[in-house]
């Protein structure tokens, strides 16, 4: 059974801090790993990672995948209160076209 | 606006009612998905439709019945639900296996 584990489950920081969110995965026929940000509504897509060691960046957010050690990290620098959300990672199984989500990390950024 | 719409946004129903959730995607994708999100649990994949053919159902109870009349529309028919079925039901679509775009969800409460 595919499994995705995220840590920490929750994190409280102050504006301006840098945070690192972790995601480890065990996915059969692994195809890619996705990061989403979920506020009050539906998840919104952040990154798709398929190649090991290549960093994806978008503004203050960046992410990298390690396919040998089966994990990914999401970094957020100079955090802002608007970064407060649940961050989800999901492993994609190519054979079943299935996403397995982790339980998410609840990030709270205090002013 | 993600290009995936869901109606209704909120639904309250009794255990003996029959109702349907609707999802429509305007992105030209070839796959659509139903997810259930309960409090403090990871997203759970319920159904996957690829070219209108159901490919995954993940052992969902028969009181949930999906229908995909074409590649742009997806329904979830509900009957004789239980209070534990109360959750946020999310629809998503994708082209091929990877990045999924989510609708805003239907918040379902079963009394």
Q: How much beta of chain B, percentage-wise?
A: over 45%
Helix content of chain A: under 10%
Rg of chain B over CA atoms, rounded to whole Å, is: 13 Å
Cα shape of chain B: globular
Q: Terminal Cα separation of chain B, in Å? A: 31 Å
**How do the helices and strands follow one another from N- to C-terminus of chain B?**
EEEEEEEEEEE
Biggest interface in this structure?
Answer: A-B, 23 and 21 residues
Q: Catalogue the unreliable spans of chain B.
A: none
How many whole angstroms does the radius of gyration of chain A measure?
13 Å
Number of strand segments of chain A:
11
Q: Can you give me a brief rundown of this structure?
A:
By secondary structure, chain A is mostly beta strands. Chain A is 0% helix and 60% strand. In chain A, strands 2, 4, 5, 9, 10 and 11 form a 6-stranded mixed β-sheet that branches. A 5-stranded antiparallel β-sheet of chain A has the order 1-3-8-7-6, with no helix packed on it.
